[in-house]
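Protocol check, entry for the methods section draft. Step 1: assemble the input record (protein sequence plus ligand SMILES). Step 2: submit for complex structure prediction. Step 3: store the structure tokens unaltered in the notebook. Ligand used here: zinc ion. Step 1 record:
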Amino acid sequence: MSPNWSDRPPAPTEFAGLRLIRVAAGSRAAGICLSQNLIGCYTHYTRRRTIPCEGAGCQFCEDSGPPRWHGYVALQSLANKTVAVLELTALAAVPLADYLDRQGTLRGARIDATRTGSRANAPVTATVQPADIDLRQLPREPNVRRFLEILWDVKPSTQARELAPPPGPNIRNITGPNGAGQSRQPAQDDHHEEHAP
Ligand SMILES: [Zn+2]
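Step 3, stored output:
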């Protein structure tokens, strides 16, 4: 066995330091969106892991009930300029989808997400507004879909589109038949606070 000499430190991995954040009770996340699009996925949370729902014939739909939808964008914190992937509930993501439909991109917009109240499962609300910033100064947009695939330890999606078109009106149909997808199993949302791949 011979050593694998390498006289320069390795380049940082693509997602070094990037974390998934969620809005904790009574707190908020405020930042500039780096993602052009909203990335959304149905997932199951089972055995302390998030697992993407496979749709028709999904084993976890049988075992643990209906999947939950979350939206994801890369956000540069206003407070300290760090970049994170923000996870939003279906309800909180609606303003992002609306903004995307109107403006064509989320990149450069200011996002404020708040979990009102002190309960861990209190609803998250989000606002999106144009920000007066120089887009050229913004960091490159991380590949959020790829980040999540690594985080969830799943194979890369066969969908070739790195930048999917805006999700369109479907995003508004995510609320359940009661019109309140948010209220179903709200506590499930709060088992996992922060992850890094
Ligand atoms: Zn499923």
